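To: structure subgroup
Subject: Chain for Friday's discussion

All,

I'm putting the inputs and outputs inline so they're searchable in the archive.
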Amino acid sequence: MKNLHFDDGESLWDHLSNVQKRSYPSREYIYRGHADANWNLIPTIYRANPQLGFHQSQETTTMVEQQLALEFYLLKQFISGCDEVGITVPNDSIEFRDRNLSERKFEEYCSQPSLWPSNELIESMVMARLHGLPTRLLDWSRNPFVAVYFAVSEALRMQEIWSSDKRISIFILTIDKYLHDSNHLF
């Protein structure tokens, strides 16, 4: 990982404007902005947040089961909320809910955590994330200025606790274009 430091917005802007121009033709970039350069790349569902406290009453549950239960419960609540206000959920049907969100399926996820989330749930999780639900997904953009916007707007919301030694950060991840070719999907 390489860290680049910029002392002003103009030099950051110039650098981000030229990233694509300096790259190899087989490379693409995605970007993520943080209001605090000390923050790690951790999805919201894994960050310490007492408001998300979800405690199983049984002492025999594992941390994995607790985490899975939290994610499962929040996604089910989000989908129920969508139902109440008439918002369509991606891939939704009675069969979709039975295959992915039934109690029977929850027990299967707990016995085999690697099955969570199913590929069918990813679009619903993306929608939930875009509506503010904490998930295991990280928001990335192909546009560097979107990342800057989110970093700066969050920093402005934190301006009461901001100090002169704080910095925003923009993460740049290089992606080979061949990964987008359906013959090379992993």
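Points worth raising on Friday:
Helices lie at 9-22, 63-85, 94-101, 103-111, 122-130, 144-157.
Confidence is low (pLDDT under 50) at residues 54-60.

D.
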